[in-house]
Design a protein that fits this description.
The chain has 268 residues and is of the alpha+beta class. Helix content is 44%, strand content 12%. The chain has 12 helices and 5 strands.
Length: 268
């Protein structure tokens, strides 16, 4: 029996869904995007077909991810506006070279790049040194850094402040899901939440000033504890989906002892 093709959802339905997800009324969106409420109502109900520019304008105001902006355009009968290429594509040679330069420049401190699903894209040698002692199974491509961090057979037993670190990662993943509504991330969150939780589970908060800049992580390596601060960098104004969904994670020393230990490990 042939499968029944499911027709694509109307662009008006998709826009209404994103508006509601952003907790905006039609008046809120119309006022912020500087269009009439009547026109927005007609677009959402399907009584009016939005132009390509209108779709992109509303998507920009709603802060919809580039991947989903393409989906809106296709639903309205337009070609996608944003390209998606792997980092191996020659067109992204400059971007890849920049990423490699940044990762290498952070040596001897760990740094890595991940895609939207937290799969490892690139890393420096300092990162690999922190993973020494793990089973080779954890280093097989694709390496999901959230699973690697929180699984009881991964790095979790070596993270001394695991309750805080786990709470931070889960909170960050929830925020990413709230922004993108990515079903694969939703499934990943369910998986991570099913892992055994630390005895003293933490409640992550972003009220302290340091939390807005860097997140503490204490990792045991060869019997010594490294105190590091995790920072995240993203591309500012990308027009390529791959770059828009890429994040650079760096771990810098939080104290002098950790700085000296990381340098000594690198030298050895």
């Amino acid at each position: 029996m042939n499968a029944v093709a499911i027709p694509p959802r109307p662009v008006g339905d998709l826009l209404r869904e994103w508006r509601r997800h952003r907790r905006l009324s039609q008046l809120d969106l119309a006022t912020g995007a500087e269009i009439s409420t009547r026109h927005l109502s007609f677009v959402e109900s399907g009584r009016s077909q939005p132009s390509r520019d209108m779709i992109l304008h509303l998507a920009e105001y709603l802060d919809i991810p580039l991947r989903e902006r393409n989906a809106l355009l296709v639903a309205a009968g337009f070609a996608p506006a944003f390209r998606e290429r792997t980092l191996a594509d020659p067109a992204l040679d400059v971007a890849r070279a920049t990423i490699d330069l940044l990762l290498k420049g952070l040596e001897p401190y760990p740094a890595l790049a991940v895609d939207r699903h937290w799969n490892l894209v690139a890393s420096n040698q300092a990162t690999l040194r922190l993973l020494s002692g793990l089973s080779e199974a954890w280093l097989q491509t694709p390496v999901n850094v959230l699973r690697l961090s929180l699984h009881p057979a991964g790095l979790a037993p070596r993270i001394r402040n695991l309750p805080v670190w786990r709470a931070h990662l889960l909170d960050r993943l929830r925020r990413q899901i709230d922004a993108s509504q990515d079903p694969q991330l939703i499934e990943l969150l369910r998986e991570l939440q099913a892992y055994p939780a630390p005895a003293a589970e933490a409640v992550w908060t972003t009220t302290a000033p340091i939390h807005a800049i860097a997140v503490p992580m204490e990792l045991e390596l060869n019997g010594e504890v490294l105190s590091m601060l995790s920072t995240t960098t993203v591309f500012g104004t990308p027009t390529d989906i791959t770059l828009a969904e890429l994040a650079l994670e760096a771990f810098v020393p939080a104290d002098q002892a950790t700085m000296e230990r990381l340098r000594a490990v690198a030298a050895a």
